[in-house]
Amino acid sequence: MAEPVAQTMAHGGVVELHAEPSALGITAAGWVALSMLVVIAIMLWKKVPAIVAKALDARIATIRSQLDEATRLRGEAEAMLADAKARSAASAGDAASIIAHAEEEAKLLLSKAEADAKELVERRRKMADDKIAAAERAAIAEVRATAADAAAKAAAAIIAEQHGAAADKALVDKTIAGLGRPN
C-alpha cells in the first residue's frame, strides 16, 4: 500500500492525499469490473440463454400437446356426429345442425389454442429479450460509471502532481490581464 502524500497549497494549508488501496495490483474499481466479467462468463458458460430457450421449448411442447388433444377431441366429436347420423337418418336436419356446431366448436378450440400458443411464445420471447436487454444496460452503466470514476481520480492525481503555487500565480496573472479586454 502506498504512503500518504502531503501537498502544500498556495494559501499555506496542507492536504493529505491517500493512495487508493489495491490488492494484487488491482484497485477496487478493477475488482468490480473483473467480477462483472466473471459473472457474464459464468452466465454464458452455464448457458442461461439456452436454459430460457429450453423452458420456452417445454412450454411450446405443452401447447402442442393441447393442440393434439384439441385435434383428438375434434376427431371424437366427428365420430360422435357420424354415430348420431347413423342412428337418426330420419332427422337429417338435426344432424346437419350438429355437424355445423361440432365443426365450428372444433375450429374455435383449434384457433384459440393456436392463438394462445402464439401469444405465449411471443410473451416469453419478449420477457427473455427484456431480461437480456436489462442485464446489458446494467453492465454498460456499471462499466461507464467505473470508467468515469477512474478518469476523475486520474485527473485529480495529475492535477495534484503538476499544479503548484507557480502555476497558480501564472493563471491568476493571465486571468487578471484578460479582465480588461472586451470579449
Which properties best describe this structure?
single chain; 183 residues; mainly alpha; 2 domains; two-stranded antiparallel sheet; two-stranded antiparallel ribbon; 4 strands; 7% strand; rod-shaped; disordered N terminus
What can you see in these coordinates?
The strands form 2 sheets. The chain has a two-stranded antiparallel ribbon. The model is unreliable at 1-10 (pLDDT under 50). The chain is rod-shaped and about 115 Å long. It has 183 residues and is mainly alpha-helical. It has 2 domains: 1-46, no CATH class; 47-137. It is built from 4 helices and 4 strands. A hairpin with a 5-residue loop joins strand 1 and strand 2 (14-17).
